[in-house]
Every structure is written in structure tokens, then in C-alpha cells.
Write a structure and sequence with these properties.
Blueprint: H1 5-17, H2 20-27, H3 31-45, E1 50-52, E2 57-59, H4 61-82, E3 93-99, H5 101-106, H6 112-118, E4 122-128, E5 142-145, E6 154-158, E7 163-170, H7 172-178, E8 192-196, E9 205-209, E10 212-216, E11 222-225, H8 230-238, E12 243-247, H9 248-257, E13 261-262, E14 270-272, E15 275-279, H10 286-296
Helix pairs in contact: 1-2, 1-3, 1-4, 2-3
Length: 322
Amino acid sequence: MATDLGDLRAFVAVARSRGFRDAARVSGKSASGLSEAVRRLEAGLGVRLLYRTTRSVAPTEAGRRLLERLGSALAEVESALDVVNGFRDRPAGTLRLNVPVSAARLVLPGIVPRFLTAYPEIRLEVVAEENFVDVLAAGFDAGIRYDERLQQDMIAVPIGPRTQRFAVAAAPAYLDRHGRPQHPRELLGHACLLGRFSGRSLPPWEFERNGEVVRIEPTGPLLVSRGTATDLAVEAAIAGIGIISLFDDWLRPHFESGALEPILEPWWPRFSGPFLYYSGRRLVPAPLRAFIDFIRAPSVPLAPPLAPGGAKRKRSRASGKH
């Protein structure tokens, strides 16, 4: 029996994502197209592979057995097909990246346009989300994360600025009304705009100056989902609702416009920048190899360097970076 490879890929995407919409987002295919591919595969095999409800999708026993075998098999097929790229003048194909929202906003804009210009035959798919996923199991070629979030058995390549820091800021009007904090503990008396990742506890705000580390648990009128709803918190800060803590690079345009005023700057914590990571256990696809070589090249611009002092040690506050 002949089975279409595309139908097998569709089944794997849907089974791993536990839904047609999520699978469509990851794979770049339409939900209706994926549904038709799975129905076609089930009809050809003569067995149901997925349980479907209005709210979720789950593999049947037959589907689980098939999924266990297909994951590594499809990876091998992709690697085998990619060997052909070695005979081309220029690499071609699709590169799939899973990245946090902060990387999509702060790191990739300085890289992606130039990369796609240099490699017009490569199609780049970027999925930005805050859930930490197994990039291989989810069908991605590579991911971007910070060092403390790297999966085991992965190769990590620096990408973007090598030192970043969290900034604290508020609208000048808010600070005129409520005062300008001179020490992090004074934030406990202010309205703070908070963020956390889905399913995780609210992280403390951490500061450091001259070896003194201060961690506080502020309160405030707004709590948002990290990454996906961060812009809402920024707009609330600009509107004078309270004080925000976020990437310096994210807030920098608002500092320059005067919409936000930096506070407690000597206390802002520094941390090491993100990494591109990928499996060291499989052949590196040609599009990914081209991307790795590109970000390693000296001509790829990084963010402007921070003030002297260098990166500090890795700390728990980094959980806010993802």
C-alpha cells in the first residue's frame, strides 16, 4: 500500500500538537488541509489514528504506536533528502525555528531580513511562543533559548547580544505623583505591573548592586502573560498605571521618546544572551547549517553593548527571559 509522505507528516504534526489549529500554526499548513490528510491516511490504513472531540485531539492506541515509530523515521527521511542540498550552488528548503516572543522581537529582526536576502531559496518558519517545547518532537530544526533553559544533548550557538539586562521604568507622570524610588525595596510601596509564564508561579523581581542582591515580590493592578501580553503591560506603564520591569532593549524606544523614565538603573540585573540550539545527534539540514554559519559571521550585527561591567552570573531572575 502506497502512503503519502505528506499525510504521515500531517498526522505527526496533529498528534504531537494535540489539535489541528496548533498543528497548523507549527507546520504552516491549514487546519482543514491537515484534517483531510489525516482522514486520507486513516482511510488508507483502515484504522482510526486519532480521537477527535470539539475541544481536543488525542491519538488512539494505533496512533500512539505509529507516532512512536514515525518520529525518528521522518527525521531520517528529512536528513536523507537534505543530502541533495550538498549538490546545489545555494542551500534551499525550509528552516523551522521555535523561539520565545522576546527573541522574535529583540533578536531576530536584526538577522532575518539579511539572512533571507543572502539565501533567497530558503523558506524560514518562525513560531514564537513561551512554552518550552522539545524542538525535535515538535518538528522544528532548532530553537532559541537562554542558557539555563537548554535541553540536554543539544549544541548551542550564541545568537544576538551576549549581554542583556532587565530595566525598571514608569511614566514620568506616575513618578511625579508617587515619587521616584531610590532603592528596590521602595517598589513594595508602588503599583507594579507584573508578568508570569503560563502554569508557573509569579517570579520575584531581582536586583544587584556592588554585590548586594535584593529580591522583592511586588504587587500591582495588572498581571499579564509573559511574552504574548507583554505589550499590554508596556502600554499600561506608558499610561501611568504603574512600574514595569522588562528587557532594557524592549523599553529602550520608550526611554528615547520620553514616554517612560528609567529608574533604579544602577540596580538593573545583567544576564547572558540567548543561544540557538539544535540536536547534535542528527545530520544538520542545509538551511540550518547556512543559518548557523550566518549568525557566526562577524558581519551579523549585535545589539549595542551595555555599560561596562560585563555579564553577571546566571540567576533565578533569568526565568523571566525564558
